[in-house]
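Example A, followed by Example B.
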Amino acid sequence: MAPHITVVGSLNMDLVARTPRIPEPGETIIGNDFHTVPGGKGANQAVAAARLGIQVSMVGRVGGDAFAGPLLDNLAAAGVDHTFVTQDSEAATGVALIVVDDAGQNSIVVASGANARLTPADVDKAKTAIASADALLLQLESPLETVTRAAEVARAHGVTVILNPAPARSLPAGLLSLVDVLIPNESETALLTGLPVGDQSQTEAAATALLDLGVGTVILTLGERGAMLAQAGKMELCPAFAVVPVDTTAAGDAFVGGFAVALAEGRALAEAVRWGNATGALATTKLGAQSSLPTRQELEILLAQAA
């Protein structure tokens, strides 16, 4: 059977403004361009994987407003099956208010809307899509009980559980025990462990602390430094790809999507991390979330150039 990934998570409409810099608290500054761009960490990861040519199913909720249709249409255009995305007439579709500065850095506020109403019952309705997958992708823009239920269903059917613990929050041991691969960034790692993530030794100590929580594999994304692949007794730094960033929005989601595709296709962990690094790097070279996610051809060109 063809490789298959299922994503349980969020769908947002991103409202993106470009500014010379991120404003200080209480400050008003004049911005530049404004765009509405499909986003949400769950949908971003689903589209990232689908753009790389793999079968993807999405489980989530949108509202009963004008943003819902474009988000579903965008999933369909990317080839993502949204059979299990429910339209909730009693909620607003999730939105993210995003400011992007001239250096490509961003500041984001998310209003969850319908995403906060995704339930364990929604997961159970999508059990066939989870059980048939090679990997399940999870994030933390959905209720924790729903994320946990999805991980339980995947684990019961031998499906690899990949958790991107973003936005950062403390996690119960019960959820972590169900995770095969944990993919946090530096700030998320610091919150989960209480440890700094600066130089190489600090990074290794933080990764070890995450492994001690019961996760089999940790991939700590480090921005320009690349990513640390950590397993019991083994640490490997996988270098980043050199690109000129325009907008870092969804770079982390692109990494997760690229990594998951490589893993679902049977590639080794280190090679899957390399795919994640390349996919994330390419996503920073274009504006927006899903609009920045690369195609399989773009990924293969970058991988070949860096070989």
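Example B, a separate protein, is given below in the same form.
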Amino acid sequence: MTGRKRHIVVDTLGLLLAVVVHAADVQDRDGAKVVLTKLLGGFPRLALIWADGGYAGKLLGWADDAGPWAIEIVKKPAEQRGFAVLPKRWIVERTFAWLGRYRRLSKDYEEHPGSSETMIRSAMINRMLHRLEPG
């Protein structure tokens, strides 16, 4: 299958905590398990993870057993029509937009998912360095 999915976990500033890239035919919930497993032991103060509605269902039960964090699904209001910015959901969308500004990440140029993950980490390192030393 062609195409890739990117799963990222970011902090409230939009800075990368974990990333997983896999084939597009893998379910979102399965990809989320992989990226959440990468968080184990690395972020002891992480208590709450906000997630998109695509991650609802069995993942919530798995996460309760797997890690010390709680997952809260950010759902759009039932009365909402069209696009609207959802609270907390925009943080990860903004990070994806930052990543899209890097040429190697604007399209799926990488042959291996590991190479794509490395490019995402490199782009975020660049982003963090520019935050430390603007201009």
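On Example B: The first strand starts at residue 4 and ends at 10.
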